[in-house]
Amino acid sequence: MEFCKLTSDFIDQTLQIYKTCLNQTNLSESTLKITNSYPYNHIYIAKIKSQVFGIIDYTILSDEAYLNNIAVLPKYRNQKVASDLMENMIDTCKNQNVKSISLEVRCSNHIAISFYEKFNFTKLAKRSNLYSQPTEDGWVMELAIK
Ligand SMILES: CC(C)(COP(=O)(O)OP(=O)(O)OC[C@H]1O[C@@H](n2cnc3c(N)ncnc32)[C@H](O)[C@@H]1OP(=O)(O)O)[C@@H](O)C(=O)NCCC(=O)NCCS
């Protein structure tokens, strides 16, 4: 298994992960390419040979980071793939003197919430109707980086 920055060779497979695991069915190849081109966005993939099975996508602005998305294909879950992607992000954040990482998560996404809590993210606030399709409240979670 290797981790690398998203390159054009892997856009198609990465797009499929956003669509199937994160329900971002309207995301287009061109939008993903543009998002990936901004220097403050970091999109990393986990792959074996040419098979992509996990992604992490975060933004660093000054000393704050925001975790936009993390996902692993169902077949590869519970094998610490997301943990490795998260550790990679936290290391990058430490190297760039980031002070905190925040994220939003659907209140019903108990698996993701327990994943984030394992990394010591804490719930800061609940935002009403943060999500659509279906409408749902979301938690804002944060990790302070020492
Ligand atoms: C959340 C997700 C990324 C976790 O990926 P993963 O590679 O399976 O996670 P890991 O194997 O690294 O798990 C690490 C920890 O997360 C928690 N966790 C993972 N899967 C879990 C499950 N099914 N139930 C409860 N806790 C779970 C556990 O604390 C686990 O540690 P443990 O194995 O020591 O108990 C994955 O389930 C996923 O892609 N979900 C769909 C996309 C999504 O919801 N992303 C988040 C959007 S905000």
Proportion in β-strands: 35-45%
- CA radius of gyration is 15 Å
Shape descriptor reads globular
Helix content: 25-40%
CATH 4th-level superfamily of the largest domain:
Gcn5-related N-acetyltransferase (GNAT)
Biggest β-sheet strands, sense, barrel: 7 strands, mixed
Number of strands: 7
Calculate the terminal CA-CA distance, rounded to whole Å.
29 Å
Structural class: alpha+beta
CATH architecture grouping of the largest domain:
3-Layer(aba) Sandwich
CATH class of the largest domain: Alpha Beta
Low-confidence parts, pLDDT < 50 over ≥5 residues?
none
Examine the coordinates and then state which fold CATH places here, giving the name of the CATH topology of the largest domain: Aminopeptidase
Strand order in the largest sheet: 1-2-3-4-5-7-6
Mean pLDDT: 97
Compute the number of structural domains.
2
Number of helices, counting only DSSP H or I runs of 4 residues or more: 4
Taken in chain order, the helices and strands follow as EHHEEEHEHEE
Structure in words:
This protein is α+β, with helices and mostly antiparallel strands and about 150 residues long. It folds into 2 domains: about 1-100, 3-Layer(aba) Sandwich (Aminopeptidase), CATH 3.40.630; about 100-145. It has helices spanning about 10-20, 30-35, 80-95, 110-120, and strands at about 1-5, 40-50, 50-60, 65-70, 100-105, 120-130, 135-145. A 7-stranded mixed beta sheet has the order 1-2-3-4-5-7-6, sandwiched between helices. Coenzyme A binds next to helix 1, strand 4, helix 3 and helix 4.
